[in-house]
Design a protein that fits this description.
Layout lengths: L2 E6 L5 H10 L12 E3 L5 E6 L4 H7 L4 E5 H7 L3 E6 L5 E8 L14 E4 L2 H10 L5 E4 L15 E6 L3 H5 L2 E10 L1 E6 L4 H21 L1 E9 L3 H7 L7 E4 L5 E9 L3 H10 L3 E7 L6
Parallel strand pairs: 1-3, 1-4, 7-8, 7-9
Antiparallel strand pairs: 2-3, 4-11, 5-11, 6-9, 6-10, 12-14, 12-15, 13-14
Bound molecules: phosphoribosyl ATP (PRT) and zinc ion.
Length: about 280
């Protein structure tokens, strides 16, 4: 049984999606000029589509799963379920106004016009916050709308903020944070679902490994208890004696979030020769 996945044909999510499949050990010739390709060593068929179309194709069962931005999933409002957040393609969707305007909060947008490519998300946010503004749907270059007199504010994707800056706009409200997500159709065939579970197992192992580092260090034996208490690890640290008497080598795993803080504490407590090594896959 083959699992069918939709991936963005070209654009910001294409490379991250293909890289993730590759790190899951799935070999597919890089033929994004083709409409679909079959993986050589996993029961997976990849369809290359425009991101806006993916939620509908998943709902209709043309494909079983797809990778899209959470923003696209929420905007299209199809019968899909979010299976897994994938950690790339991160951005936020924000409301912005011309920099020289005195507006600082969304309540000041009552009666104003807001341009966006995401009318569904914006409408539900405005309704929830009891703001009555009119929405102008445009499909691209939303950031120029205030300058050409089409709108008083915009609602658009922001990443570094340089597009807003270059267009003399300021962000007044973040409405949503988004990243690439794996979506699946409801009521999936049991056998197809089993293939999805195999794929998910691999995706989770790859993602865990990305956020963790393997750490090796040397420590004097009288400091071992203290040093081990600083290392959360998977179970407990591995301790091996060094050739030099009175010293041991300690191995463990550190999460990226705690990384620098833990390293500083280890150093301050007598750890030496600290090595940090990337982990390729992590299966708990
Ligand atoms: O052709 P197709 O329809 O498939 O692609 P597309 O042009 O609709 O989408 P694409 O490839 O631009 O984006 C795909 C997805 O990437 C989006 O739906 C988001 O989930 C995610 N993503 C992440 C982004 C950005 N970062 C991003 N920076 N999508 C768009 N942008 C644009 C944004 O629209 C704005 O114009 O980049 C500009 C802002 O960037 P900064 O860095 O200047 O703030
Ligand atoms: Zn698109």
């Amino acid at each position: 049984m083959t699992l069918k996945i939709a991936v963005q044909k070209s654009g910001r999510l294409h490379d991250g999606s293909m890289q993730l499949l590759k790190e899951c050990g799935i070999e597919c010739s890089n033929g994004s000029n083709q409409l679909r390709i079959r993986a050589a060593n996993f029961p997976l068929e990849i369809f290359f589509l425009r991101d806006d179309d993916i939620p509908e194709y998943v709902q209709d069962g043309v494909v079983d799963i797809g990778i899209v931005g959470e923003n696209v999933m929420l905007e299209k409002k199809k019968q899909n379920r979010l299976v897994e957040k994938l950690g790339f393609g991160k951005c936020r969707l924000s409301i912005a106004v011309p920099r020289n305007e005195e507006i600082t909060s969304i309540s000041e947008l009552n009666g104003k016009r807001i341009a966006t490519s995401y009318p569904v998300i914006l409408r539900s946010y405005l309704d929830m916050n009891l703001v009555s503004a009119s929405i102008h749907e445009i499909s691209g270059s939303v950031e120029i709308a205030p300058r050409i007199g089409l709108a008083d504010a915009i609602f658009d994707i922001v990443s570094s903020g340089s597009t807003l800056f270059n267009n003399e706009l300021k962000e007044i409200q973040t409405v949503l944070t988004s990243e690439a997500v794996l979506i699946a159709k409801n009521n999936m065939d049991e056998e197809v679902n089993r293939v999805l579970e195999r794929l998910l197992f691999r995706i989770r192992a790859v993602r865990k490994a990305r956020y963790n580092k393997y750490v090796l260090l040397n420590a004097p034996n009288d400091k071992l208890d203290l040093i081990c208490s600083l290392l959360p690890g998977m179970k407990s640290p591995t301790i091996l004696p060094l050739a030099e008497p009175g010293w041991s080598s300690v191995h463990s795993v550190i999460h990226e979030n705690d990384f620098w803080e833990v390293i500083e504490q280890l150093k301050a407590n007598g750890a030496e020769g600290i090595l940090i090594v990337p982990i390729e896959k992590m299966i708990l």
